[in-house]
């Protein structure tokens, strides 16, 4: 009873990679609804008014909790934001994009050492290890593994999703809106709803497989790899009526702190949240 | 043609949560092979000798690349380790568990700013923004979203997987073995293979849904929540012939740096990798 999936895995690969697409022949792979669903991922930022039922969220949370978590420590949480005014505050006060106010549901994925701290505190113990970079990384990775299960499960049901890294534009504001205690921070959000027919976003091409994937030892990127992707992405962006320039974007992101748009203060911000990442 | 999935979603929820399990009634959820696959996730550390074909890895990498990535920057890579001696070195030199030497394939997921740095360098530009905590976090989250797609796709095909956070026990050694340049680090690995019939690991119970998931604002954990989970997990561990003590484990992890087993040096280690996480 899940949403109908176009099972043409090789067509999905061509859409994902353009000219660099591998083509498969193994029937187990060609018949995989899972692969077909994942390969067709796109971000959705326009939703219909159709509600997302609470039972659906229950199922997505169960999928999220079923993902692996480092040493079964489960150092993540999720806050479901449905209230109209609360979603508007995420936009007005916490740096989320305007479309978030129109999404039926926003899931805030939290890197959460507050629960472990509370457990230790209840036994009269300290929580010093939460202050180290390793702990911050585990919280973010746990949250990401959980969120990705929720996203893929949602998409398999026909829902549309969009990750909201924008909620790291002001971690203090996001934490206040979500009511987070110390040692917890919103890692990112996920907007969720039924895709609006006017949503035109397609499957975004990615770097060719052999640019990202190497056998036995890492293969450095070549100028040819990058030029090829620049062309593939430009062709896609043209269909979306959007300018392109992946190389320019990457250079602007990595060159200096201007590429961080304020997030060069992330360590200071996380310190204020009780996660100094020492 | 994928592996047969037991579609009883409510039974899977009972296995995942024990007495705290929600039960669903929506036919779209009860009929979801995706949910059934995710809910039944378990870690697999014993594999048969059956090889994992290269075309399967191609499909898993395509699934991984189809996951969302922050601003389409794609700051992750994956190194596929098949060579017997190389997997043995991951155990002997990089801190991986012994079973990794017996896994047919190990995927090393890399938080990779080296590609962006190379692109910037090729244009005579610097790469200073790679040095900030925000960039480290994006690399780890990108790697985690990608890996989770690969893991779920693998499991849907009947493969078994196990995340290897152990590869952060010695990031310098892991990077050397994988041939990583500066500004790249192995975030974690994933061992992959066909589950051995003697693998007894089951579906590990998680915290009750309402402990991890709250509506509108974060709900702090209560002692009752934790005691209930302690019992549920103890009952599961008894079926595995293993001692239990989740509360003790959490306290030992968070109390002081002994819980980090050397990873209190993660920031220093990442600095050596060119990712100082300022």
Report the principal-axis shape of chain A: globular
**Strand neighbour order, sheet with most strands of chain A:** 1-2-4-3
Number of helices of chain A: 12
Query: What fold name stands as the CATH topology of the domain at 54-199 in chain A?
Result: NADH Oxidase
Protein structure class of chain A: alpha+beta
Kindly report the average pLDDT value of chain A.
Answer: 96
Stretches of chain A where pLDDT falls below 50 for ≥5 residues?
none
Biggest sheet details of chain A:
4 strands, antiparallel
Q: What is the CATH architecture descriptor of the domain at 54-199 in chain A?
A: 3-Layer(aba) Sandwich
Provide the helix percentage of chain A: 40-55%
Order of helices and strands of chain A: HHHHEHEHHEHEHEHHH
Gap from first CA to last CA of chain A: 48 Å
- Hey, roughly how much beta strand do the residues of chain A contain? 5-15%
Radius of gyration of chain A: 20 Å
Oligomer category: homodimer
Q: Could you name the CATH homologous superfamily of the domain at 54-199 in chain A?
A: NADH Oxidase
Largest interface: A-B, 136 and 136 residues
In CATH, what is the class of the domain at 54-199 in chain A?
Answer: Alpha Beta
Total strand segments of chain A: 5
């Amino acid at each position: 009873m899940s949403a109908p999936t176009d099972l043409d895995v090789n067509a999905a690969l061509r859409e994902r990679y353009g000219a660099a697409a591998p083509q498969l022949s193994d029937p187990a792979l060609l018949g995989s609804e899972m692969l077909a669903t994942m390969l067709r991922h796109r971000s959705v930022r326009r939703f219909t008014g159709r509600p997302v039922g609470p039972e659906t969220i229950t199922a997505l949370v169960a999928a999220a909790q079923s993902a692996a978590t480092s040493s079964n420590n489960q150092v993540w949480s999720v806050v479901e934001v449905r209230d109209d005014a609360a979603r508007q505050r995420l936009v007005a006060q916490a740096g989320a994009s305007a479309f978030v106010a129109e999404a039926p549901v926003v899931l805030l994925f939290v890197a959460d050492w507050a629960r472990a701290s509370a457990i230790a505190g209840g036994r009269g113990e300290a929580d010093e290890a939460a202050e180290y970079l390793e702990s911050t990384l585990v919280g973010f990775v746990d949250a990401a593994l959980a969120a990705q299960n929720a996203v893929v499960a949602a998409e398999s049901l026909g829902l549309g999703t969009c990750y909201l890294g924008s909620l790291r534009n002001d971690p203090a504001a996001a934490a206040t809106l979500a009511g987070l205690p110390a040692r917890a921070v919103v890692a990112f959000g996920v907007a969720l709803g039924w895709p609006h027919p006017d949503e035109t976003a397609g499957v975004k091409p990615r770097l060719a497989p052999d640019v990202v994937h190497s056998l036995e030892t890492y293969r450095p990127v070549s100028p040819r790899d990058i030029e090829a992707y620049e062309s593939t992405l430009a062709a896609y962006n043209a269909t979306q009526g959007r300018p392109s320039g992946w190389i320019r974007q990457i250079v602007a992101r990595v060159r200096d702190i201007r590429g961080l748009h304020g997030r060069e203060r992330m360590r200071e911000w996380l310190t204020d949240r009780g996660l100094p990442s020492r």
